[in-house]
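Aim 2 progress update. The chain analyzed this quarter is reproduced below.
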Amino acid sequence: MKFAFSAAAALAFIQPALAHYRFTSLIGPDGTVTGAYEYVRQNTNNNSPVENLQSTDMRCNVGADSGSGTSTMEVAAGSTVGFKADQAVFHPGPYALYMGKAPEGTTAAEWDGSGSAWFKIAEKGAIIGDGTFEFDTTMTEYTGTIPSSVADGEYLLRIEHIGLHSAGAPQFYISCAQIKVSGGGSASPATVEIPGYVSISDESLSLSIYYPVPTSYDVPGPAVFGGDGSSSPAPSSSAATPASSSAAPPASSSAAEPASTSVATSPSSSAAPAPSSSAAAPASSSSAASAPSSSAASPAPSSSVATPAPSSSAAAPATSSSAAAPAPTSSTCAKDGYNCCMDAYNACAAKANSAANNGGNVDFSACSSAKDTCVAGLARRHARQWSRQL
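Predicted structure tokens:
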């Protein structure tokens, strides 16, 4: 007896797994990447961001209030730990690592992250050069050092990456791992409560990263805990931070992405032309490392796009277009499957991120439409194959 398995059903099943990145694995002190959700709490949010900044989901993501089924890793104070994502973090925006100490008598697995208990141990902001403002969009790993002076005990280690691709609508990509610290000291860092540590009105969250080109940037949230009872913010105009960030090669689902999202300015006395998804003028070199761009005179790579400067005549804000990015099809992806559709989507989204848009929001509609068409085509193809086998 055969049963009907429609392409729509296949698409509904596959779709949640395709799109955004998730921080699924803890990186231990020896650099070992642990299994997915072995030490990281699994959420019920699939790969969607948290967008309500007043929600308790800001702590460890949706459905991750406890970690009863999650292991807790023992680490020494002063160790370097971090997270690995399941694909490249392709949205432009800052990173931060937080620690929160579980209350006395409570394990990290039992704690829901409530109360004023969180402090920041690392951050990575924008790379700012001469007329350029960019974030690394190829990273798959981010690590930081546990201050050697923190008290022993069980903690939640929290990572957040904030997508700033749509002005005024920040997206938080969050995961929490469970760790037990030993060999520490007696420091008492200043702490914050989550939610409540950031506001949608904060300039670092509400700004447009494309136009006008920002000349400084402070990572949202409190200053980084310095380890000696003090807090030391990272320089706003530098990508140097207490964390060691990884520019490791992107995961297989993001191999086609550019090294960074870059914006540059060029003088003009006429009205700003409509943006294009291809490079329009020389700009500063994009960097996959965390060091600032060294020059605005070198030719721009394919991921860097020149943004026209404002003029005396008003130019309506435009939306960066993804229409020129390569579109995946079910025929070209027949062999490699759904990951092929996502690879092309990531490349398309990265190109849209880096396109000049004169103050508008980034338009991912062409990327999403092509991805949906590709996935639907594969789902129909697979449905036909499955029905023949039954």
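The longest strand covers residues 171-182. Residues 257 and 347 are 5 Å apart (CA to CA). These observations will guide the mutagenesis experiments scheduled for the next reporting period.
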